[in-house]
Specification:
The complex is a heterodimer of chains A (about 400) and B (about 375). Chain A is of the alpha/beta class and about 400 residues long. Chain A has 2 domains: about 210 residues, no CATH class; about 160 residues, Nutrient germinant receptor protein C, domain 3 (GMP Synthetase, Chain A, domain 3, 2-Layer Sandwich), CATH 3.30.300.210. Chain A has 13 helices and 13 strands. In chain A, the strands form 2 sheets. In chain A, strands 1, 2, 3, 4, 5, 6, 7, 8 and 9 form a 9-stranded mixed sheet that branches. In chain A, a hairpin with a 2-residue loop joins strand 8 and strand 9. The radius of gyration of chain A is 26 Å and the shape is globular. Chain B is built from 13 helices and no strands. Chain B is globular and about 90 Å long. The chains are: A alpha/beta (about 400), B mainly alpha (about 375).
Chain lengths: ~400, ~375
């Protein structure tokens, strides 16, 4: 028993020494004001061949207490340029005398110009290799420059990148974007499937809060989700609009919930019905068809009527029409997603090659490189079974005043 | 060997498993692209069978000699030639410690932080392990049981936490490239199971002799297969084919985990690996010091320990820089030679030598008996 205690003591001392060695403050002499804590990084095309980085950092000396207690924006955005991402980060050290610490980075935003010039592999290699890089960092592509996105102020958080991350999370939950993290890029770069990154558009709007000064040209930037950027083998191929993005989420089985505003036909009195889709479930069946395959994508989902924007209530007999309208709308979105991603750009963002490989290995074996083109020749059948239910109030038609 | 200084079959199984898991958590057979993705799941099962197969010569030897140590038996059979076996076993223990140290320093420097002092880390681990080795096998065995329980619990916990990040599409089809990758994957793993080399040395320390050793080998094969499957499913389910492109796939997969308040699961993975490595190094150090004691007497053990701490740490750091380029040459080929020598050839050579000795004895006894009977008749 005495020996057992001694072993425990030795183990404890071992962990203590290793723990102390690993503590940054014990192995580095740099003070907190000698380093900047990066919360977002933007990568844009440089003036020459290199890249321009925008770094959103927490100004440690300007904060007091925890970040949640800060009244104002606790970050600043710096710009730096270099021949590569790593050299640009190091040139920031040369210019400011402060080292960058990227372990707390939340977002990597890529400018559209840079995305069209460079592959994902070359832009993200530093973050994938670096021991400070985390796989949960959110990725986004910006229409225009990434720097604009990093400069968008936040009303709700002291660190604006947190709001962008929140926007991407909520947007993906509501079917506006496909959320992608560094981990997803790593998976895609291994060749399993292609990747789609969310696109964010930055708009400048007149600042209403300073209405008295509006004529002086004051404006504020705001960020908006704007579809999906498709990459084939890490190289930018094209975009999906928000509707096709929603279709992509359905096809991949990633959709959690979304809204559809359905236009009712004239024989039903016209008007609009807004439904909230949830519990979507996707099944993809692969069948061999000569040297190609047929993919049957079947979606089942539930939906609730949120709003009847029409003169009269929907009768129970009309629910079937809403079912059909919703099913068709979802089918069209999926069709748009497949036609654009596979038919137009040859991007396998759904992972269909992988599914065919699992079901019929002989179909793919030895022809892995040809599959983006083979996918264009494959047959696709899409079917949607939506079940709309009606909840909430039921107005009596006679009680609604005529307009 | 008194009962008080022996360990139970359960403790031996825990010791063997903890020791091997220190390798399983960091080494990926995909590093050499011999077996990848789902095929490695089959390789892990085949590896389990191969472990049982490779343990058979040691078990046969144990049964024939009633659980004698090959080291002692070599002294009995070959006289001073037994010293060569003791030196060989000692050297094997040292080599295994160096190879583990190479991975240890590589992992910390390339994956955790390049700024960490490798010298402090390697010397601390080696010194702590040698200090623990002086407390004997029972203390190490008891600690191993505790560490194995923690490690097993942790890898299951990590699997559950990472389930939301796993997708079926990440698992490639089985046998996509035929059966060859499965066989190569198992053969890549087998020599890295250094515990098979050390089975013979453990014999005098196991309560219950060769029967207990058999039970421990069975538990080791089954337990290791189960743990290897969990580790590979975790890495493959989270990373997919990317698991074949990184040096430490299990650790990379674990960095993606988030479990409520525990946002940094990689710390857990690093801690349990460090604990397992500590047990393995202490276990190897204990066997090494026993070999030194048998060669040069008990007084030689403390100075040998000090020299070994310096040697293991220095070689671990020095070879650590070459580990990526020369991993196969440094670790796999050397391990294969050691496995063939000590797990297969030595037990068979001792059995053969014993057989010849007994036959010679019988011959000389029968000729003496004949001689006596002739004398009696005359």
């Amino acid at each position: 028993m005495k020996n057992g205690r001694s072993i425990s003591l030795i183990s404890f001392l071992l962990f203590l020494v290793v723990g102390i060695v690993m503590l940054p403050s014990c192995r580095e002499k740099s003070q907190i004001n000698h380093r900047v804590v990066v919360t977002a990084i933007g990568i844009d095309a440089g003036e020459e061949e290199g890249c321009r980085l925008s770094i959103q950092v927490i100004e440690v000396l300007k904060t007091s207490g925890s970040l949640t207690e800060q009244e104002h924006n606790a970050t600043s955005v710096y710009k730096t340029e270099g021949l590569s991402v790593a050299s640009a980060l190091k040139s920031f050290v040369a210019a400011s005398g402060r080292n960058v610490y990227i372990l707390h980075n939340k977002i990597i935003a890529l400018g559209m110009d840079q995305v069209k010039k460079q592959s994902l592999q070359s832009m993200l290699d530093y973050f994938i290799r670096s021991h400070e890089g985390r796989p949960q960092v959110d990725m986004a592509v910006c229409r225009g420059s990434a720097m604009d996105l990093l400069e968008v102020p936040s009303e709700s958080t002291a660190v604006p990148s947190e709001q962008i991350a929140q926007m991407l999370e909520e947007g993906s939950q509501w079917g506006f974007v496909t959320r992608a993290r560094i981990l997803d890029v790593e998976r895609a770069l291994s060749g399993m499937y292609d990747i789609g990154l969310p696109i964010i558009r930055v708009e400048e709007e007149p600042d209403d809060s300073t209405s008295g000064e509006s004529d002086t040209g004051n404006s504020r930037k705001s960020a908006h989700l704007d579809g999906t950027a498709l990459f084939r083998n890490g190289i930018y191929a094209g975009d999906l609009d928000p509707e096709a993005t929603r279709g992509l989420l359905f096809a991949r089985g990633d959709l959690e919930q979304c809204l559809y505003v359905l236009e009712l036909p004239e024989d039903m009195g016209g008007g609009r019905v807004t439904v909230s889709v949830k519990n979507a479930h996707t099944t993809i069946t692969v069948t061999q068809k000569d040297s190609t395959a047929e993919f049957a994508i079947q979606v089942t989902c539930d939906a609730e009527i949120l709003e009847e924007y029409m003169p009269e209530n929907l009768g129970n007999s009309q629910i079937a029409t809403v079912n059909a309208l919703l099913s068709e709308a979802i089918r069209q979105d999926m069709n748009a997603a497949l036609e654009t991603s596979i038919g137009q750009y040859g991007c396998d963002v759904v992972g269909l090659k992988r599914l065919a490989m699992k079901r019929y290995p002989e179909l793919v074996r030895g022809r892995e490189e040809e599959w983006p083109d083979i996918l264009k020749e494959c047959a696709y059948s899409l079917s949607v079974d939506a079940r709309v239910t009606k909840i909430g109030v039921e107005f009596d038609a006679s009680s609604i005043p005529a307009l | 060997m008194t009962k008080a200084s022996q360990i139970s079959p359960g403790q031996l199984t825990a010791l063997l498993l903890t020791s091997r898991l220190a390798v399983s958590m960091t080494f990926a057979p995909t590093l050499h692209q011999v077996s990848h993705g789902s095929d490695y799941l089959l390789s892990a099962v085949l590896h389990g069978f191969l472990i049982l197969l490779a343990a058979l010569p040691s078990l046969w030897f144990a049964k024939r000699t009633d659980s004698a140590s090959p080291l002692e038996y070599a002294y009995i059979l070959w006289g001073k030639g037994g010293a060569i076996v003791a030196a060989g076993y000692g050297l094997a223990c040292l080599i295994y410690q160096v190879m583990d140290m190479v991975w240890f320093s590589q992992f910390f420097v390339t994956t955790l932080s390049p700024d960490i002092s490798r010298t402090v880390l390697c010397v601390t681990l080696a010194a702590a392990a040698y200090a623990a080795a002086f407390y004997g096998l029972q203390a190490v065995g008891r600690a191993a049981a505790l560490v194995f329980f923690t490690v097993a619990l942790a890898i299951v916990f990590i699997l559950i936490v990472l389930l939301p990040d796993m997708e079926l599409i990440h698992f490639p089809p089985f046998l996509y490239d035929g059966t060859r990758p499965v066989i190569y994957g198992a053969l890549e793993e087998l020599p890295r199971t250094s515990e098979l080399v050390l089975l013979g040395l453990m014999l005098p320390y196991i309560h219950g002799g060769y029967k207990s050793l058999g039970k421990a080998c069975l538990g080791f094969g089954i337990g290791l297969t189960a743990c290897a499957l969990i580790i590979q499913i975790t890495a493959l389910g989270v990373l997919g084919d990317f698991s074949g492109m990184v040096l430490f796939p299990y650790y990379t997969a674990v960095t993606a985990a988030k479990a409520s308040l525990l946002q940094r699961m990689d710390v857990l993975a690093t801690s349990i690996w460090l604990a397992a490595l500590f047990i393995k190094t202490a276990f190897l150090a204990m066997l090494y010091l026993n070999c030194v004691g048998r060669l040069a007497g008990a007084k030689a053990r403390p100075p040998a320990a000090v020299i070994s701490i310096v040697l293991v740490a220095w070689l671990g750091i020095w070879l650590g820089d070459m580990a990526l380029q020369w991993e196969r040459q440094i670790i796999w080929i050397v391990s294969t030679v050691l496995l063939s020598l000590f797990a297969v050839l030595l037990p068979l050579a001792l059995i053969g030598s014993d057989f010849l000795r007994k036959r010679n004895l019988r011959c000389s006894e029968s000729s003496e008996a004949q001689h006596e009977s002739i004398q009696g008749h005359s």
